[in-house]
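Supplementary Methods. Inverse-folding protocol.

Structures were first reduced to a discrete structure-token string of length 255. This string, shown here, constituted the complete conditioning input.
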């Protein structure tokens, strides 16, 4: 790799909001796989800003030209880049229509998803499917779950369904970003606080962020409640708000 290639490569990841890059099989979470090997450090001073501002003219292209989801999946391989690999059964890459104008992003796989390798197939997933299909039907939009694309910030189940750690989000987030660049959707729906933080860099809670358009690079992002939160019986008001958010997204994307 020439110095010019290396500079372009680092600029590309900086534009994605990455602060640090790790060689495959290395990094802070890959403790069982050997010594950490950092080859780039602090290439972006302001990742959160970079992720919400529109791209700066003249910066590097969004993705390696024409990268497909399959290529992203192949690059993930039998991933051991972070500690989440230690307890996983299956990597949960994503599912649905890879040309979808709408992508839903959750936090990370739960037990059912880890067993099947498919995102949002447990109770929360069933609610998400109902939310998508019932809201679309009510609004006169012909849409099934398989018409959209669904994935998560982290692709391996965090032990005990804990929230992913910042380093896990950063390492796995680069694959989420590459998925989004391959799909180039018209809009993204961030389900819950982890997805909202990964995509927008904003630290406020979902209650503050939901219901308004934010951005991941130049793609509009709507934050709404995670379906697991909506499953709790005392969150009726949040349910109504999530339905409102979804209606807005669906009309924006499909009208
Ligand atoms: N919760 C998530 O965030 N993602 C899934 O795939 C399932 C549950």
């Amino acid at each position: 790799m020439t110095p010019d290639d290396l500079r372009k490569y680092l600029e590309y990841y900086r534009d994605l909001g990455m602060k640090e890059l790790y060689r495959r099989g290395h990094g802070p979470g890959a403790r069982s796989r050997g010594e950490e090997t950092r080859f780039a450090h602090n290439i972006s001073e302001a990742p959160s800003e970079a992720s919400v501002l529109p791209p700066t003219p003249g910066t590097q292209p969004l993705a390696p030209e024409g990268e497909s989801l399959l290529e992203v999946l192949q690059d993930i391989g039998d991933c051991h880049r972070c500690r989440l690999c230690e307890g996983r059964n299956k990597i949960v890459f994503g599912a649905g229509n890879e040309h979808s104008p709408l992508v839903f992003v959750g936090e990370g796989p739960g037990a059912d998803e880890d067993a099947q390798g498919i995102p949002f197939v447990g109770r929360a997933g069933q609610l998400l499917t109902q939310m998508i299909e019932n809201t679309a039907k009510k609004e006169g939009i012909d849409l099934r779950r398989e018409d959209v694309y669904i994935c998560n910030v982290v692709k391996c189940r965090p032990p005990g369904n804990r929230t992913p750690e910042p380093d896990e989000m950063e390492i796995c987030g680069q694959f989420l970003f590459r998925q989004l660049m391959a799909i180039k959707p018209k809009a993204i729906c961030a389900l819950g606080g982890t997805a909202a933080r990964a995509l927008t860099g904003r630290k406020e809670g979902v209650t503050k962020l939901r219901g308004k358009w934010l951005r991941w690079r130049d793609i509009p992002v709507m934050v709404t409640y995670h379906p697991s939160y909506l499953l709790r019986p005392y969150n009726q008001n949040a349910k109504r708000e999530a339905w409102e958010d979804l209606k807005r997204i669906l009309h924006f994307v499909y009208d």
